[in-house]
Specification:
By secondary structure, the chain is mainly alpha-helical. The chain has 12 helices and 2 strands. The chain has a domain at 1-124. The protein is 70% helix and 1% strand. Strands 1-2 form a two-stranded antiparallel ribbon. A hairpin with a 2-residue loop joins β1 and β2 (134-135). α1 (2-22) crosses α5, α5 (101-120) packs antiparallel against α11 and α6 runs parallel beside α7 (165-174).
């Protein structure tokens, strides 16, 4: 089933790329545009779930003061705390788990795209495909390795599968002259990676606005995802970056739309409630 899904995704990408190539768009641009169109298709199909997720997140932020009251009142009784918290969510139509659903749905597509692009890098047709300088088949690590001309003891180029973060960056620090003399090979993949890190931070910042408990995630998630992205093909980064940008635009739209409602603060107890 997984193999069939990969074949289906590859066929869809090849269909979009081939259609654009027929009207005179170069291979470099047609592959990049095919990935962007795939991102648009996924975002449109997921719009109802994403809309529900973001609306729920906005309501969660509004409920933070009431949640604090419940925590103060039932802090010593976990069963009562969970019961009253769930009653509050139910009363206001909030589903705490809804925030995970769009991510869980996107994850298989993300993994499939990685597998498809990885297989494409093994073909001669995809060997030199770039989109605005971004090597769609190569990662930051592999493009830096190419710039550094890394080889093993026998003088054979080190396979991409054997490249590691420490290996590449140690070589980079000891061969800065060679690295920057070939800057065009890796810099565009690196810039895309930095943009994704920023977009991830911005998404976290918008998501955790007003929630001090999630402030730590504002820095952890961008750093963690940046580390993962060092080994991802440029095509996957392009998908991730465009999807993140569209997510931020959507999120800002939802926040603006619900802005007036968010100004209405919930009525709080003047004094800390007492257990009966």
């Amino acid at each position: 089933m997984w193999g069939q899904a990969k074949s289906l995704l590859l066929s869809l990408l090849e269909l979009m790329q081939g259609s654009m190539a027929k009207i005179g768009i170069s291979d470099n641009f047609s592959w990049g545009l095919a990935i962007i169109f795939l991102t648009l298709i996924v975002r449109v199909l997921m719009h109802p779930l994403t809309q529900k997720q973001m609306t729920s997140m906005q309501k969660m932020q509004k409920l933070q003061p009431l949640l604090k009251v419940i925590q103060d009142k039932y802090g010593d009784d976990k069963d009562a705390l969970n019961r009253e918290t769930m009653n509050l969510y139910k009363q206001h139509g909030v589903n705490p788990a809804s925030g995970c659903l769009p991510l869980l749905i996107q994850l298989p597509i993300f993994i499939l795209l990685y597998g498809v692009l990885y297989d494409l890098t093994k073909t001669q047709a995809f060997e030199t495909v770039t989109f605005f300088g971004v090597n769609l088949g190569g990662s930051v690590l592999t493009t830096m390795s190419d710039a550094l001309k890394l080889v093993d003891e026998s003088g054979v180029r080190i396979p991409n599968e054997e490249l590691g973060f420490v290996m590449v960056f140690l070589s980079a620090f000891t061969n800065l002259g060679l690295l920057f003399s070939n800057i065009g090979i890796w810099i565009f993949n690196f810039i895309l990676l930095v943009l994704i890190a920023y977009l991830t931070w911005l998404q976290q910042h918008l998501t955790s606005a007003g929630n001090t408990q999630m402030q730590m995630m504002n820095w952890f998630m961008p750093l963690f995802l940046t580390f993962i992205c060092f080994g991802l093909p440029g095509g996957v980064l392009l998908y991730w970056g465009v999807s993140s940008l569209m997510g931020i635009i959507h999120q800002k739209h939802v926040m603006k739309k619900t802005g007036e409602e968010m100004k209405i603060k919930p009525v709080l107890y003047k004094e800390k409630p007492k257990n009966k």
